Amino acid sequence: MKNKKILYVLLAILLVAGGIFVYMRSQKSKPETLSELYQMNQSDLTLNVVRYYEDGGKDGISEDFILSDEDGKKLMDTLFSATYQKIDASEMGSIGGNHNFYQVEMWNESEERWVNYEFYRNGIVELETIDKETGSDKEFLVKIAEDSLDIAEVEDFIISNSNSPIPCRKPVIYLYPEEEMDVRVKLDYEGELQYTYPAYDEKAGWEVTAAPSGKLVNKADGREYSYLFWEGNNDIEYDFSKGFVVKGEDTVEFLQEKLAEIGLLPHEYNEFIVYWLPQMQDNAYNLISFQGVAYTDSAKLSVEPQPDSAFRVFMAFKALNNDADVKALGKNVSSMEDVFDINLEPQVFETFERNGFTLVEWGGTEVE
C-alpha cells in the first residue's frame, strides 16, 4: 500500500513537471518582440514581401516581391538588427493614413503557420501571428528607433534583390491596310502573357479582317475591335541612359508633345494618355524613357502579310516622389532638390512616316 502511495506521488510529480514543460514551451512559442520571434524562426523561414500602395490614387494595389533564401536572410538580419520599442495598441490609429507599407510574410515550416510583419514609412511595425492552439490572431506593435534603421534602404534592398516580374502594360496594336484584308498577328513574348483581348490563340495568334479605318473583325468570334490588346510580365532590364525628367503635373503636355513628335495620331496618343495619366500625374516627378530594342527584342511580332511600315512605341518610367527614389537611380544625385541635375541625355526622335499597310503599337511599364 505504501509503495502504491509513493508511486502515485511520483506520477503526480511527473505530470506537474510535464505540464510546466508544456507551458514553458507554449510561452516560448509566443514571443512578444520581433527579435525574439525572428530568433525562433530563422532556421526554417520562407519569405515573401508584398508592397501595398495606399496613396496616389492606388488604394488597394499590391505588388509581390519574392526573395531568395539567401537574400531573405539578409533582409531579416537588417530588419531585426534595428532597435525597437514596444508600443500600446492605442497607437494603432497612427498606422492608418496615406502610407505605403511592406508586409513581410514568414512561413514557419515546423509550426505550419504564417507570421506577418507590416513595416510602415512612419516607423511603426505591426506583427500579426496566429495562436496555434486557438487559431486566433495575436498582434504586437513596435516602434523602430529613428536612428537604427533606414526604411528607404530596406526598400532599396527588397527591390534590387527580388525577382519580381516587370509588367508590360496595355500594349495595343493598330492595323491600317490600304484596303480590307485578312491579317494574322503572332506574338513571341519573353515572359508570361496575363491578358489578351480578343483572346490570343497560342498556335494561330490573332486572325482578323482589317479595314483601312483601323476597324478589326476577329475571325474567332466575329466581333469588331479597335485594336489587339495584350499584357504580360517579364524580367527585362530597361534602358534609362537617355530620357526626360518631367513633373507629374506636366504629364499631359509632355506626352501630347512627344507622342505627336514621334508619330502617333491624335486618337492613338489620346488613348495612350488616358491610360497612363492616372498613374503618372500625381507623382512629384517621373523619369521617362522611350524604349527601343530592349522592348522589341523581348516582344517580337510576326505579321502576315508583312506591313510596309511598322512603328512600336514603348514607354518605361520611374516615379520620383522622395529622396530615396532619386538616390536609387544611381546617377550621383541624392535628393529631390537635385532632381534636374540627373545626368540624362534627352532622347531625339525621327517622326514615323506611314506608307502602305501600316502597323502601330504603343505600350508602357512602370519600373520600381
Write a structural description:
The protein is an alpha+beta fold. The protein folds into 2 domains: 132 residues; 201 residues, no CATH class. 26% of the residues lie in helices and 35% in strands. The protein is built from 8 helices and 19 strands. Strands 2-1-4-5-6-7-3 form a 7-stranded antiparallel β-sheet, covered by helices on one side. The chain has a 7-stranded mixed β-sheet with strand order 10-14-8-19-18-16-15. β4 and β5 form a beta hairpin. α3 packs antiparallel against α4 and α5 packs antiparallel against α6. The radius of gyration is 28 Å and the shape is flat. The chain starts with a helix and ends with a strand.
Summarize this entry quickly:
The chain has helices at 2-28, 34-41, 69-80, 151-161, 251-262, 266-280, 293-296, 323-327; strands spanning 45-53, 61-66, 84-86, 101-108, 113-120, 124-130, 137-144, 166-176, 181-189, 192-197, 206-210, 216-218, 224-225, 228-234, 244-247, 285-290, 299-304, 309-320, 358-366.
